[in-house]
Amino acid sequence: MAGPAIRSVARTTKKNSIIYVQDGWQTLVDQLYEKAVRSGVSMMTGKNVTEIEHDGAIRKIKFADGQEMDITHVISATPPEITAACWSGNVLFGVYA
Question: Domain limits of the chain?
Fold first, then answer.
């Protein structure tokens, strides 16, 4: 679905060129979201995360409403500084630019 489109764009674009996705980038995001859900991924949107617990691996997320969830992976669509503020101990074990 989205994979062939991405490969096609990668093959046909030149360095420093502008990429336009027909019907907008949101169509690509929507397709990736749908494929992930069909593959069994749980998606949560519109939740305020207060903490991401880890011990070298992600273990749990805590929400502003008091809910907690045991997890192994997080995809964050917030700016890096906001995601970093949620890490327990405010220590990241990765590098971002």
Answer: 2-38, 49-90
